[in-house]
Amino acid sequence: MSNGSTFPPPRRRRGTVLLVLAAVALVAVGGWLFWRQAGGHGGPTARGGSPAPGRTAGGGTGAGGGPDRSTDHGGTHRPGGKGDPHGSLKGRTVVIDPGHNPHNSRHTGQIARLVNIGTARKGCDTTGTATNDGYPEASFTLDVARRVRTLLEDQGAKVVLTQDGDRSYGPCVDERAAIGNKAHADAAVSIHADGSAAGNRGFHVILPARVSAGPADTAAITGPSRQLGERLADRFRAVTGSARSNYIGDGTGLDVRGDLGGLNLSTVPKVFIECGNMRDAKDAAQLTDGGWRQKAARGITEGITDFLTR
């Protein structure tokens, strides 16, 4: 309609109607796109309303992006995230000590050198044990240590490994303790697997005894180390389903020793964990399984996290 006094020719009226309908359609489409980009689809958005790069609307992996690291291989939620300022372990330092070294067997002279552990002089290091099929303890400990490192870093922790397969042998037991001390670690865990007789099954955690001799003085760490050990044993049992040792610790899964340099010389809370018995076929079947080693790493990580955040 023009000024209300006359009607336009019929052809022109149809054209106007079509233009109005086209305008309405454009407004509707534009409104829908604005609603979708503003978050109506439920996905994360970046500046300008675009989906966050590298992630799909559901928060998983998107084109060109990395994996969603909020869950591990078993789908268990991990608090915080790598680089996340709200990670539960941000500002914490953890030392992980993979027992022995895959190369120790080629350096028997060097690892036999005696070092002072306070209560005695003992060999620098040993080759460790192995399963009956030849899977070395040193390979097991390094694999689990690397998995633990990843899980702890995902929660914001600074993680120091005493060795990462990058040394020709060792380090010696006194140096392993010194690494944790120098890092001022909030917690330190030495990862091992036992070499006992067949039929002896399960895991156990070794706590430092009260020692005061030479360079060793554990008075300040026996209490917190016991707390670390108890929580580590609880979480390792819960996550892996493994039983506490049936041959050490009277069913507690805890042992106290004063003959280990890695514990005697530590000035930070520290424990050893023997994750199972490599010389027992049933335990060995778990220790050689990658899926079980991931559970072991998660159990160790949860024990450390429980100790540091409770």
Can you describe this structure?
This protein is α/β, with parallel strands linked by helices. The chain is 36% helix and 15% strand. The protein has 8 helices and 10 strands. The strands form 3 sheets. Strands 4-1-5-10-6-9 form a 6-stranded mixed beta sheet, with helices on both faces. Helix 3 packs across helix 8 (290-309). It is globular.
Short description:
This protein is an alpha/beta fold. Helices cover 36% and strands 15% of the residues.
Task: Provide key terms for this protein.
disordered N terminus; alpha/beta; six-stranded mixed sheet; single chain; 36% helix; 8 helices
| Low-pLDDT residue intervals, each spanning 5 or more residues | 1-14, 16-20, 32-86
- Major beta-sheet overview: 6 strands, mixed
- The average pLDDT value, as a whole number, equals 81
Q: Rg from C-alpha positions?
A: 30 Å
Spatial order of strands in the largest sheet = 4-1-5-10-6-9
How far apart, in Å, are the first and last alpha carbons? 76 Å
Number of E-state strands: 10
Helix content: 25-40%
Order of helices and strands: HEHEEHEHEEEEHEHEHH
Could you say which structural class the secondary elements and strand pairing correspond to?
Answer: alpha/beta
Percent of residues in β-strands: 5-15%
Alpha plus pi helix count: 8
Note the overall shape: globular
Blueprint of the fold:
Blueprint: H1 10-40, E1 93-98, H2 108-111, E2 114-116, E3 121-123, H3 137-154, E4 158-161, H4 173-182, E5 187-194, E6 204-208, E7 212-213, E8 216-217, H5 222-240, E9 254-257, H6 261-264, E10 270-277, H7 281-287, H8 290-309
Parallel strand pairs: 1-4, 1-5, 5-10, 6-9
Antiparallel strand pairs: 2-3, 6-10, 7-8
Enzyme class: hydrolase
Organism: Streptomyces bugieae
Biased composition (Basic and acidic residues): 69-87
